[in-house]
Amino acid sequence: MAARSILVTILSLAGFVLFWQALSWAKADADVLPGPLVVARIAHAEWQSGALALHMGATLARVAAAFALAMSLGLIIGATLGTFGRADRWLGPWLVIFLNIPALVVIVLCYLWIGLNETAAITAVALNKTAMVAVTLREGIRARDPALADMAQVFGMGWLARTRHITLPQLWPYLAASMRNGLAIIWKIVLVVEFLGRGSGVGFKIHLHFQLFDIATVLAYAVSFIAVMLAVEYLLIATLERRATSWRAQ
Q1: pTM for the full model?
Q2: Is residue 218 part of a domain?
Q3: Which letter, b or e, does each residue of 53-77 get, where b requires 16 or more Cβ atoms within 10 Å of its Cβ?
């Protein structure tokens, strides 16, 4: 089944590339919609020059920092609100507020309050994601099966064993959703942050070539980063998910 799943994924991605190429042929204007081969050649040239690796590394560092901060804060807040009803009643409206503040507003305010620096960039991205992680985990805490907790207490399971065998397997779908959504949203917001006020990163390069109306290079940087995120999804998150849910097949 694993080999078949990998084959389906490869064929699906190949189908997307063919769809892209077909659109490029239909448009018949490489300046407006360059094909995948043109974009691949530019990405290769940028990699050989060292520019792609430099700016990709800067963006990945910001994504990693913002992701770690947002997940940590979101897990703490979500676990607290999901466990203590009074805290949820008082702080639940706060989550609604933060969920609905536009990302652009948070980015601009952080730049104005903190300055055009890395701290402001990472803080803006993390704030945009923390509330979503908190809400997702809060619902996961609420959805736990109390009968399983009672069973663990009857069998005298310790805190560590309960967490590993009872709590985490039930929460994993919610954690996985937070991680997937987090990566998908965070890297997009990071690009906006770089677009507006950083001198390095994929967003900075997209901004630079946007001003030159260089669509091929814009796509080269965008597609390169999407490829990295696909690798993270299928090599890291999907692997963790299979291990965390392996008990279902037993």
Answers
A1: 0.80
A2: yes
A3: eebbebbbebbebbbebbbebbbeb
pLDDT exceeds cutoff 80 at 39: yes
Contact 126, 153 (CB under 8 A): no
Rg of the chain over CA atoms, in angstroms? Answer: 22
Q: Which own/partner contact pairs does 111-120 have at CB distance under 8 Å and 24+ positions apart?
A: 111/196, 111/197, 116/197, 116/198, 118/62, 120/197
Phi (first) and psi of residue 85, to 5 degrees: -60, -40
205 part of a folded domain? yes
What is the rounded CA–CA span in Å between residue 21 and residue 39? Answer: 11
Structure tokens at 64: 């990693």
User: DSSP secondary-structure letter at 202?
Assistant: H
Dist CA 235 CA 232 (whole Å): 5
Q: Angle at the Cα of 49 (from 116 to 31), degrees rounded to 5?
A: 85
For position 193, which CATH number holds? Answer: 1.10.3720.10
112 vs 234 pLDDT, higher one: 112
Tell me how many domains the chain contains.
1
Q: How far apart are alpha carbons 178 and 129 in whole angstroms? A: 9
**pLDDT at residue 65, rounded to an integer:** 92
